[in-house]
Specification:
By secondary structure, this protein is of the alpha+beta class. The chain folds into three domains: 38-186, Rossmann fold (3-Layer(aba) Sandwich), CATH 3.40.50; 189-404, no CATH class; 407-580, no CATH class. Helix content is 47%, strand content 14%. It has 28 helices and 15 strands. The strands form four sheets. A five-stranded antiparallel beta sheet has the order 7-8-13-14-15. A four-stranded parallel beta sheet has the order 2-3-1-4. Strand 2 (91-94), helix 6 (106-113) and strand 3 form a beta-alpha-beta unit. Helix 6 (106-113) packs across helix 7, helix 18 (338-349) crosses helix 22 and helix 25 (422-438) crosses helix 26 (509-519). It is flat. The protein starts with a helix and ends with a strand. The relative contact order is 0.08.
């Protein structure tokens, strides 16, 4: 017996499926892959670059750079249909999927492939090659062979292809042998002034649930509902229909984006498809044959059913994947708001919980589970968690304002930062400067900073004069309403040691959040110092600059009173002075 036909079609989304991997060196996209294909901004850029390269008479090496599973091979396979006359001029080598001689390393294979692009051969070379390569592999190759491929190495350095903290230039240079499209510049989401959006994920989910004759998943869904007399008892049917509601899909999309931003999660298109399968198909129903499946869901009690629907299942299974783990940390049950607490009190004491659900949650969200909520067999703790999560999905905009103000601010600044808006860039520098001053404790003055002197002191605090000098480029202010190509964290530069050095500080969401809490009086503990040791080392460089000249101020711990002593050095005579202030 085969399993549920809907499950069988959904399995095509899995990473282990034969449908998951494209090779890129020929058109191997079947009907389902072609149906799921969504043109991304990076594909538009790749098309333009490929067309320009095909017209050039000199040797052309087009580097298609990125990370594992980000769709390089899929797009190249798709281009065989769209741009066959252009792409057929090229030899395509996919470093991730190309078969190798078992006696060769990846470096050996690339060395042979790129022979025409060696410094001694390139002027006479007519090769045209598209090299789909992961950034780590490219870096490793150049480490070994950069002397023989110095022109390629220089191009990679000048274009900063291996740098993750900049957005790369897409301008095409007719005179160059080398060109690149970097997939790491493009993301699953885009930035707007009102937050992040994702046409990619949105369109993908729409295709998966669409009533389209090219969509075998929806065809199988209709077949299963027709043959099974009680489809409302099936959690997979509920989950699939849950995604029919565009608002529910949008909340799921926002959770994915939030996982990417908050946890620096790298999500490839391949892993995204696998995630969608895991969201729709509970793990204990994924490999049950048809006869057993019918018996299993017929006998499924209310608690089991409720546990397997998206609003609950999504947050309860961190073991399924890295993305599930990150999303479980975003569970609305972790947070508390007075309004929700008041409703939960009523829910716990109510004889008719369904009325409270109906008054606070949309009817489409409650569809198919109303009778289960009415059931006396569902314990109140299960109802409470279900209510919080359903309320989150039904009232997302309100919920995020109450639970995630720092995230909203981070995304707002990220949008303006990538638009080179000086107002927001200045705001970001001020946040970092003020947090650095207060990292070791509040000095109660903007001109000084507390320094650590060996063992933690309980009776005295030691200060020194402190100032920072931001190094800000004069960037052209952009007016993009939606940004598809951007960096996902902030990079700030400070001048140190009399402006002879530049200190680069990277601020991701996690660091941004703790910097915000410091401004409200939080004092980083040992765990924070370990978690952000990179940042601590950088701020110590800022604090400790000019130590040979700076005066020290010693304060007996009597918060609110003036500094007590000053210890200074006369540079001209190399003498020291200790005085009461």
């Amino acid at each position: 017996m085969v399993s549920n036909p809907l499950v069988e079609e959904l399995k095509k989304l899995r990473e282990t499926s034969k449908y998951a991997v494209a090779h890129g060196s020929h058109n191997n996209l079947d009907a389902f892959k072609k149906y799921l294909h969504i043109e991304r901004k990076v594909e538009e850029v790749l098309k333009k670059t490929l067309i320009n390269c095909s017209k050039n008479s000199i040797a052309q090496l087009l580097l298609v750079c990125g990370n594992v599973g980000d769709g390089k091979s899929h797009i190249l396979s798709h281009l065989y249909s769209d741009l066959y006359s252009e792409i057929s001029q090229f030899k395509i080598h996919n470093d991730a999927t190309e078969s190798h001689n078992p006696d060769e390393s990846s470096n050996d294979t690339l060395y042979k492939l790129l022979d025409g692009f060696k410094d001694g051969n390139i002027n006479n070379c007519k090769d045209k090659i598209i090299l789909a390569i992961n950034l780590g592999t490219l870096s490793k190759f150049l480490e070994v062979y950069k002397t023989e491929f110095s022109q390629l190495a220089t191009y990679v350095v000048e274009q900063k292809i291996l740098d993750s903290d900049i957005v790369h230039n897409d301008l095409f240079n007719d005179a160059s042998y080398f060109h690149h499209v970097n997939f790491t510049d493009y993301h699953l989401y885009a930035l707007t002034e009102n937050g992040a959006v994702s046409e990619i994920i949105s369109n993908l989910l729409q295709k998966i649930i669409s009533n389209d004759p090219r969509n075998p998943i929806h065809t199988a869904y209709l077949e299963f509902k027709k043959e099974f007399k009680n489809p409302e008892k099936c959690p997979i049917v509920y989950n699939y229909e849950f995604l029919f509601d565009v608002k529910m899909r949008e909340v799921l999309i926002q959770l994915i984006i939030k996982a990417i931003v908050k946890s620096k999660e790298i999500i490839s298109l391949r892993s995204l498809l696998n995630f969608i399968y895991d969201v729709l198909v509970p793990i204990d129903l994924s490999s049950v044959n048809t006869s057993e499946y019918i018996k299993k869901i017929e006998s499924m009690n209310d608690i089991e059913f409720v546990s397997n629907i998206i609003p609950n299942y999504l947050f309860n299974h961190p073991e399924l994947s890295s993305l599930f783990e990150k999303i479980s940390a975003l569970d609305p049950c972790i947070y508390r708001a007075s309004k929700i607490d008041d409703i939960l009190l009523k829910l716990i004491n109510s004889e008719s919980p369904i009325e409270i659900f109906e008054n606070n949650i949309s009817s489409t969200t409650l569809k198919s589970i109303e009778e289960r909520i009415k059931s006396k067999k569902v314990l109140k703790e299960y109802l409470s968690a279900l209510f919080i999560r359903l309320h989150y999905f039904s009232n997302y905009d309100e919920s995020i304002k109450n639970m995630d103000s720092d995230y909203i601010e981070y995304m707002e600044i990220l949008f303006h930062y990538n638009n080179n808006n000086p107002v927001y860039i200045k705001k970001l520098y001020r946040l970092v400067e003020n947090a650095i001053r207060s990292w070791n404790g509040d000095p109660k003055t903007a001109e000084k900073v507390i320094i650590n002197v060996g063992k933690r002191q309980t009776r005295y605090r030691v200060f020194k004069d402190f100032e920072v000098h931001p190094e800000v480029e004069n960037l052209l202010l952009l007016q993009d309403e939606i940004i598809h190509k951007f960096v996902q964290e902030f990079t700030l530069n400070f001048k140190i040691n009399n402006d002879t050095e530049t200190l680069k500080i990277h601020v991701d969401y996690s660091l941004f959040k703790i910097l915000k809490t410091i401004l409200f009086g939080y004092r980083p503990n040992k765990k924070d110092n370990n978690n952000y040791v990179y940042f601590v080392n950088l701020i110590n460089k800022l604090i400790n600059q000019n130590n040979d000249k700076a005066s020290l101020y010693i304060d007996e711990v009597n918060i609110g009173k003036a500094v007590d002593y000053k210890f200074s050095k006369d540079i001209a005579f190399s003498t020291y002075k200790f005085e009461l202030v």
